[in-house]
Amino acid sequence: MVGYAFMGAAHSQGWRTAGHVFDLPMRPVLAAVCGRDRSAVEAAAAKHGWAAAETDWRRLIERDDVQVVDVCTPGDSHAEIAIAALEAGKHVLCEKPLANSVAEAEAMVRAAEAARTRGQLAMVGFNYRRVPAVSYARKLIEAGRLGALRHVRVTYLQDWLADPEAPLTWRLDRERAGSGALGDLGAHIVDLAQFLAGEPIAGVSALSETFVRERPVLSGARAGLSGAAGSAYGPVTVDDAAVFTGRLASGALASFEATRMAAGRKNALRLEINGERGSLAFDLERLNELSFHDHSEPAATAGFRRILVTEPEHPYLEAWWPPGHGLGYEHTFVHQARDLVLAVAAGADPAPSFADGLQVQRVLAAVEESAAKNAVYTPVPPPDAPRA
Amino acid sequence: MVGYAFMGAAHSQGWRTAGHVFDLPMRPVLAAVCGRDRSAVEAAAAKHGWAAAETDWRRLIERDDVQVVDVCTPGDSHAEIAIAALEAGKHVLCEKPLANSVAEAEAMVRAAEAARTRGQLAMVGFNYRRVPAVSYARKLIEAGRLGALRHVRVTYLQDWLADPEAPLTWRLDRERAGSGALGDLGAHIVDLAQFLAGEPIAGVSALSETFVRERPVLSGARAGLSGAAGSAYGPVTVDDAAVFTGRLASGALASFEATRMAAGRKNALRLEINGERGSLAFDLERLNELSFHDHSEPAATAGFRRILVTEPEHPYLEAWWPPGHGLGYEHTFVHQARDLVLAVAAGADPAPSFADGLQVQRVLAAVEESAAKNAVYTPVPPPDAPRA
Amino acid sequence: MVGYAFMGAAHSQGWRTAGHVFDLPMRPVLAAVCGRDRSAVEAAAAKHGWAAAETDWRRLIERDDVQVVDVCTPGDSHAEIAIAALEAGKHVLCEKPLANSVAEAEAMVRAAEAARTRGQLAMVGFNYRRVPAVSYARKLIEAGRLGALRHVRVTYLQDWLADPEAPLTWRLDRERAGSGALGDLGAHIVDLAQFLAGEPIAGVSALSETFVRERPVLSGARAGLSGAAGSAYGPVTVDDAAVFTGRLASGALASFEATRMAAGRKNALRLEINGERGSLAFDLERLNELSFHDHSEPAATAGFRRILVTEPEHPYLEAWWPPGHGLGYEHTFVHQARDLVLAVAAGADPAPSFADGLQVQRVLAAVEESAAKNAVYTPVPPPDAPRA
Amino acid sequence: MVGYAFMGAAHSQGWRTAGHVFDLPMRPVLAAVCGRDRSAVEAAAAKHGWAAAETDWRRLIERDDVQVVDVCTPGDSHAEIAIAALEAGKHVLCEKPLANSVAEAEAMVRAAEAARTRGQLAMVGFNYRRVPAVSYARKLIEAGRLGALRHVRVTYLQDWLADPEAPLTWRLDRERAGSGALGDLGAHIVDLAQFLAGEPIAGVSALSETFVRERPVLSGARAGLSGAAGSAYGPVTVDDAAVFTGRLASGALASFEATRMAAGRKNALRLEINGERGSLAFDLERLNELSFHDHSEPAATAGFRRILVTEPEHPYLEAWWPPGHGLGYEHTFVHQARDLVLAVAAGADPAPSFADGLQVQRVLAAVEESAAKNAVYTPVPPPDAPRA
Q: What number of C-beta contacts closer than 8 Å exist between B and C?
């Protein structure tokens, strides 16, 4: 694993746990973790249960005891590390967003395709697909329980930037993070919309905004930030929020909102999908629940059902606890680890693929283009569009 | 009152009840109701408690026992009736949307201004401003409890057209209704956004869609519909749904959705407003509740409060029942009647004014223009923009 | 109508409105209202729309223009007025609880039975049966959708006495009110349990408590209170809260709680019923909603449905507004007026009958007896038990 | 660890994870797990990460590499194993309920007291105290945010026995399980009531019921059940449900319900506590949320707040994920492991103690006694009552 901050901790928990909960044909071994600061990475290795620590990711991917490289760094290094790891013969799991640009993402897809011919797998970490309620939502849609889709609406609301004095971090720096709420939160909701609908977004119209343009620079964090040279306040070079609408390939209307300025909303990834035959709703703040409306039910007894997605019949749940004993955020990483192990054992393609990650990147690029051009409707190249 | 269908019944309940609940300086008398079909209008008069029935609205507005004309007809006749009533010296309450076009709305504002010099009042029926929770939300925003606004998101979701075999009615006919979900539902949410924020929408970017383009013609309803000449199916000439984003004058981002195709959502006018210091949320399906997050509260005890807006301190509530004994949809019309009576007694301007109705119309026109031009961001003329 | 305070206002709204909303064979006329203070009752008559005012209920029940006497006084006068009205040949609607004692209630049932032979009707005002969601819950249970009942749990939580400085009123005086939370709130939940289950409560075990034993005496209210002679504080002679368990005739377990000390709960009449085949839940603070779990649904898609009880298929709703346009507290009184008018027109027995009211009284008496005897399980005489 | 079924799996997850998430002075090592069937226990050891397997718990507690014995067996063996482990010089964590009888629990407390003089610790596994929302609720009550307590109501509703054909297991056998819903679910809610209120239950009045008295015998499970000799159906010898009321030492009224027959409720441990100054509510099915009503807030802005208990200021949360990224059921076991490790390292008494477990047992015994004696109010010996 490369990187050991928030995402690294979450991935570690996934790798450590998957083999103890699921019956897997291979059990993951936490071979080595990599970070630039030796004492910090060694402390992280000890804490998170990795057998060894490296300070150069190039050394990590050369190790013989490493079969899978898990990339948990900021977006600006995804492409370089992931491509090198694939070229070094490793399977790769790369955190989302796949890259900071379409060009990088395309290069990563090419590398993944080449590696695939050698039997290697590549997967992008859109972990929310693996919330059981979300997985099950996809199953219901796949089974036709919603009929023709009419509406997809997804918001991802957080509030850690609502306070104008919240400090600058690498996440507010365009060079490191690529974009702001859009790449961080928007990537998730774009992926979920396409995953759940089972079809790509065809075009978008977008507005974005940076409400607070300067924020206090934390002395310790200063080095890692571009454009923050010694002053008390530094520029925010990414968006605080983006709102966009779009059309799915089938013609359904979609709306999206990603923001870090929604006071009181901590992790409100909320989605609702309406179809001719039914509707689904989900809120990540209540991740064990799925709301389902069956429009074929007689009107007098119809209504959104609060399904506790904790039954053995639900995805992933057979291995966990009895009904009603809910899971949490980190379980998505356990499921991700499990699914990648199963794919490796079976030699099967895991999902979401790097191509799925590229498609998200294309949508985000179209969003940025539309936002820059007075919100004009901007088509998104389809999945089979030629790559540069 | 002109018109006696759904809106006429609701307004009647408001006029009949206001004087028995609130202590008013003048008590409304239900003098006469007007409709084209004599036996139907006489039945309506008897049922809803009107003393007389007329079949020609021109006769109604000539009656000496009429001081207020309440226009509850479809949008295509609002301008003609309201202007004539104002010219005849009556106060006018006109259902929303104010008109089917900006030009009509401008003419109505001109008529209202002229009438105002003669002491007459004109009010447009955006009744949801008078849900106590909505009125109270405005008070909290006005008092600065949200600080600088960042986000306004409002959806109005219904599902009575989710079934593709739901029949054609006048509401699906552009000539009668002006537009579809946009004018019917969108007008409400545009008004609420501007009312609550206390500022106009500066521009919009929009997509709209008619998912079901032909619907069965009910034989009885056929006559009233343009373009439905004897065939079993007739064309739907309005939008089923519209999604749009925008900016408020202050720079806050806004998103809107109006649809009649959201299976399972019956009357889901949902709004959330996020500011630097707090947030508010409301759902018309739970109209006695307001959610309020105070961002100045310590994080450990902060959270959205479910305020039951049924305390005597809340707008309109002193006259109603004890705390927790909720009100319903129709109470908005009782409050509307009360407020207009108070305005008449005081000679004060009621709100929302015809100018407020015009401003909504301008937003809706910009939405339609944007939707027709690839969603390009389309500015809305400000309230003080010159009128044609 | 006798009495014109809170209940009088609510009943007036019911009588005034029923004929304008429902198609009734007879339209109620608000003939006369009665109260002891002439100027106050005349003001009430004017405000609430009654044609005449009386200061002696004996005069009221002699009036030829009165066919129905609606008793809205405190419980200590119910028996005397209702029996006299029945003897005077009137139909009677009596507010709940039917009486302050079983003996009074028995006398009222006898009077009602005698009057029935003369074609007169008697009904007790358990208005919450007429919340559409509650009516519909009964229909689902009657149709067997819950199967054999296992559990009934009902709480009625208010908080207007949470503050120890809340003043004494007649409701805290045993002579006037009979009991405290038990008679006021407990009567409702006992009636609802028996109504919904369709069977009587067989026995109970109870604890009750008066947490605040002295409260400030309001000078204006002093005269009407026993035991509050001039002092600044007077004794509370009723219960603040009662909790009790019980068994229904079929063996289902039941639990009940009535309190005025539940800070933050304004009108939380919450009920849940679990049966072998399904469950229902309801909260009066969200009275347009009913939660229904169908246990025959596959586990993966099962869950409590939030039914918006606003469809034309639901009880009373055909006459009201479109789906999702909710009703409020006072509509229960409109429905009560409608149902009594229909019963009178048809010469049919209305429900709940005085016998139903007596049965509630028997349960409340058993609760008090159990509370006085160390909570020992105390049988309730069945509906067909001999009366004194 | 002794036992490796549901509880064993959950405890293993706790022991495996605690040291990787929290900074602990000692890191737990999973030395050995014990079960009677060698191949099964070896499989469990491999799966759950235990270094060794034993088939005799007496051998386990003799091992030198074992410092803590975690007892996860059915209740009938708790006393024997825990006492022996304490006598063997080990720290002991014992699953709830502490024992199947007061006498056993008393013996365990004596053993714990004796061991304490030798520096050993004993803790009982009421894991729900360690849901962060519950821990935080205790802090709010301790800080006086609720004032004098008036009401405690707690239900624990499950539905896995709603189906009369659900099979017999050891949990339905009095000899193994001690009691039914009462000991399994009731123990939790009794402990939580006493923990949160910070005071003991003084007395109870109870009803209990076995609705389904015979259930199908699974052939594989037959051996472990008393009274199920070869027949297709065997007797249920424990309660399906119990409802009880009580008084806390301070005089607050309490009500409780434990059932496995509440169709649609999967793990609905719901509690609400009302005090003079505020109220709290919690539902285990939404375990990341706590509802708090501050009664000192002005009425117009007061209401139950939905606190997402995921802030770094909340108990245990500093070590986990960012705000809004919720935890699940198993985290209670991680927290339990952490707290016991910290207690061992500090030589401090962990809570809940065996004495706390005994006090719960006394309440459960009083419940059973009351249920057997017509629900008569049955005092519970106070914590300082002499032990047999």
A: 96
- The span from the CA of B216 to the CA of B237, in Å, is 13
pTM of the model: 0.96
In whole angstroms, what is the distance from residue D286 CA to residue A137 CA? 19
Residues 210-249 of B with CB under 8 A from A: 211, 240-241, 243-247
Measured at the CA of B361, the angle between CA B360 and CA B365, to 5 degrees, comes to 120
- Terminal-residue alpha carbon distance, chain B: 30
As a whole number of angstroms, the distance between CA D356 and CA D105 comes to 10
DSSP state of D184: I
User: Which ranges of A147-287 does DSSP label H, i.e. alpha helix?
Assistant: 174-177, 181, 187-197
* pLDDT tier for residue D223 given thresholds of 50, 70 and 90: very low
Report which of C271, C272, C273, C249 is spatially closest to residue C149, judged by C-alpha positions: C273
* DSSP secondary structure letter of residue C2: B
Chain C residue nearest residue B305, CA to CA? C264
Q: Round to whole Å and give the CA distance between A290 and A305.
A: 8
Q: Specify whether the CB–CB gap between D186 and D362 falls below 8 A.
A: no
Tell which of C155, C285, C307 to mutate to test the B interface (max B CBs under 10 Å): C285
Q: Which string of DSSP letters, residue by residue, matches A73-97?
A: S-GGGHHHHHHHHHHTT-EEEEESS
How would DSSP label each residue in D294-346?
ETTS-GGG--EEEEES-STTSTTGGGS-STT----TTHHHHHHHHHHHHHHHH
Considering only the beta carbons, identify the residue of B10, B266, B325 that sits closest to C324: B266
Spell out the domains of chain A, with CATH numbers in brackets.
Answer: 6-128 (3.40.50.720), 148-276+353-371 (3.30.360.10)
Mean pLDDT by runs of 10 across the 388 residues of chain B is 96 98 96 97 97 98 97 95 98 96 97 98 98 98 98 98 94 91 96 98 98 87 49 92 98 98 98 98 98 98 98 98 97 98 97 98 98 98 91
Give whole-number Cα distances, B89 to A23, A260, B66, D186, in Å. Answer: 83, 53, 10, 73
What is the distance between the alpha carbons of residues C5 and C9, in angstroms, rounded to a whole number?
Answer: 6
C136 at interface of A, judged by CB pairs closer than 8 A: yes
- Chain B partners within 8 Å of C10 (Cβ): 321
- Degrees to nearest 5, angle at CA D226 with D222 and D228: 50
Task: Tell me the three state secondary structure of residue C247.
Answer: strand
Nearest to C319 by CA among C303, C306, C338: C338
Cross-chain Cβ contact C286/B287 below 8 Å: no
Helices (H), chain D: 6-21, 38-48, 57-60, 78-87, 102-116, 132-142, 174-177, 181, 187-197, 331-346, 354-372
